């Protein structure tokens, strides 16, 4: 299993069609837990358990546009037990995954 990363990429987003193409491509990549497209800045932030270079290459092939990696951060999250099931014993997992995404997104935006 890959570590939890937060990566910022620069992609030229000219029009609504480009935005839609990028969004659809990001939604097809299963390793990504969250993404943020900043259209005016031409930046795309993604978080999840993935290999950063392979996600950038896959995205470039899917959208047929240049993808430049600006920043990669490995998010440090609490122990797997606490993050995996939200600290509860039994029942559903709680919000562990949601908490991890929020922590990673905060780390990515610093």
UniProtKB/TrEMBL annotation:
Coiled coil: none annotated. Transmembrane segments: none annotated. One of its GO terms (molecular function) is metal ion binding. PANTHER family: OS08G0431150 PROTEIN (PTHR47294). This is HMA domain-containing protein.
């Amino acid at each position: 299993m890959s570590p939890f990363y937060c990566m910022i990429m620069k992609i030229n987003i000219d029009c609504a069609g480009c935005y839609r193409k990028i969004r659809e491509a990001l939604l097809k990549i299963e390793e990504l837990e969250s993404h943020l497209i900043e259209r005016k800045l031409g930046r795309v932030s993604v978080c999840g358990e993935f290999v950063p270079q392979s996600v950038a290459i896959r995205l470039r092939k899917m959208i047929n546009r240049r993808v430049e990696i600006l920043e990669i951060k490995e998010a440090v999250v609490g122990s797997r037990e606490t993050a995996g099931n939200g600290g509860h014993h039994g029942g559903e997992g709680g919000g562990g995954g949601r908490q991890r995404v929020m922590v990673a997104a905060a780390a990515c935006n610093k």
